[in-house]
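pinging the channel bc i need a second pair of eyes. not urgent but kinda urgent?? the chain im working w is below, pasted from the shared doc
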Amino acid sequence: MAKLRLISYCKIMLLACLIILFCKCSSMSSLKTARVTKKGDVGFAIGYGNVLNDEGEEPFSRIYFWELNIRYGLAEKCDIGVEIGLPAPIALDIKYQLIGNDTSFVACGAGLGIAVFSFSEMNLGVILPLYLSIHPSEMIGIYTSPRFLSFYGVGITSGIRFGKDVALLLEYSIYTNFEYGNEYVSQLTGAISYKIP
């Protein structure tokens, strides 16, 4: 059984590597609460969203994207993940849960990530997120994640999660873009999450 799971994980990572070839820039979504994936479990989130940004003469520019977030429970308080977007990013990250557990009302965590935001120039960036979530019931999680993106700016993502092993996530992100005169960029994302125990 363990060997079969390992083969499945290898196939998922191979698919992720193939998708990387089509990536161009990085999204700002979180698609997760402060709770970590249980040790040995795998979680998936498939999302669809759009980016809105002010470009001076044009009122808004809309960019639509798909993304896949895969997480693996590395230890009791720690998980790792990869985020792949079409036509957006590839980001690898690790999250450590500082407060709470998988049943607590409040959870808090911190993370560190590395993202490739331009494959044509092989530009790398660092993501420094904090995670805070409350869980009024087993089926509801309300979360926020302020973060610093070295290639983009500072901002915050907030959202709500409905469901347990299979869940619907809705979130909104807003960032200040350092590279383009501190303009504000926002992103709206909806996702479906599934956990494989």
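so The helical segments are 2-20. and The chain has one helix and ten strands. — does that match what u expected or am i reading it wrong
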